[in-house]
Write a structure and sequence with these properties.
Distance between the termini: 61 Å
Structural class: mainly alpha
Number of helices: 4
Largest sheet: 2 strands, antiparallel
Length: 142
């Protein structure tokens, strides 16, 4: 789908997205350079928010284990070591959870990928069902 031209005789005309929102932004360079800059900004903001989501996931998991660390604070050295060890142990767990969330979001927001993943899951289920059925039929015949 081509992006409609919104420059007329040296004036800037608002770009209406789906006839709902107007968008004004003046950038130096050509139209293609402006689109590339907007795309770069969008990508940077997206990855910043994903990183922030990972950090909050890690922090939230640490808060869940806060009462355990509070019990360990009976002996101050053990409480400090416990907080450090839980932070280290929760880092890869939060990284995996954030990665799964990012991939699931990418799949859910792409109709083509969503259809491909659903087809792959359904076809895998059919193959596993047929194998189990053949194994059951073959096992009773012996």
């Amino acid at each position: 789908m081509a992006i409609p031209e919104r420059r007329m005789d040296g004036t800037l005309v608002p770009f209406a997205y789906a006839d709902q929102e107007t968008f004004f932004r003046a950038l130096d360079g050509t139209h293609e350079q402006a689109i590339a800059e907007l795309h770069t900004e969008h990508t940077m903001i997206t990855w910043f928010l994903r990183g922030l989501g990972f950090f909050f996931m890690w922090f939230g998991m640490a808060l869940v284990l806060g009462p355990f660390n509070a019990v360990l604070d009976i002996v101050p050295f053990i409480g400090s070591a416990g907080r450090l060890l839980t932070a280290i142990a929760l880092f890869p767990i939060a990284l995996i959870c954030a990665g799964v969330t990012i991939v699931a979001s990418m799949i859910a927001h792409s109709p083509v990928m969503l259809v491909l993943v659903v087809l792959a899951i359904v076809s895998s289920g059919v193959v596993l069902y047929r194998r189990a059925k053949q194994k059951k039929a073959g096992g009773t015949a012996k």
